[in-house]
Amino acid sequence: MTHTDLFPNELDIHRRAGAALIDVREPDEYIRGHVPGAVNLPLSGFQGREAEVPDGAVLICASGTRSSQAAAYLALQGHQNLKNLTGGTFGWTREGRDLVTGDQP
């Protein structure tokens, strides 16, 4: 397995531990609402920017599909201990959690 899946209720543990939160959606999606603390690095622009994602990062998208693809790609580049937010921002909000809007984390 290239990464570990996290459920939204598990994300707080990783946030408190200082894990980097990387939102792989496109900038317009990110601006409309993202998990607090997440930084935008679109999957479409990953190539050449892999070093910006630290080992142990939590990858986030809308549903968990693109972030899972990103984790698999990064694992092939040698990254370790990557996490994928299962359900993405949709799952996050389904649990009653808020998103941050705008281009700042």
How do the helices and strands line up, and which of them pair or pack?
Layout: E1 4-6, H1 8-16, E2 21-23, H2 27-32, E3 39-40, E4 58-60, H3 65-76, E5 83-85, H4 88-94
Parallel strand pairs: 1-5, 2-3, 2-4, 4-5
What does this structure look like?
With 105 residues, the protein is of the alpha/beta class. The chain contains 4 helices and 5 strands; from the N terminus they run βαβαββαβα. The chain has helices spanning 8-16, 27-32, 65-76, 88-94; strands at 4-6, 21-23, 39-40, 58-60, 83-85. A 5-stranded parallel β-sheet has the order 1-5-4-2-3. It is globular and about 35 Å long. The protein starts with a strand and ends in an 11-residue tail after the last helix. The model has no long low-confidence stretch (mean pLDDT 93).
In short:
By secondary structure, this protein is of the alpha/beta class.
The low-confidence parts are: none
How many H/I helical runs? 4
Main beta sheet: strand number and arrangement? 5 strands, parallel
End-to-end distance, in Å? Answer: 29 Å
Order of strands side by side in the largest beta sheet? 1-5-4-2-3
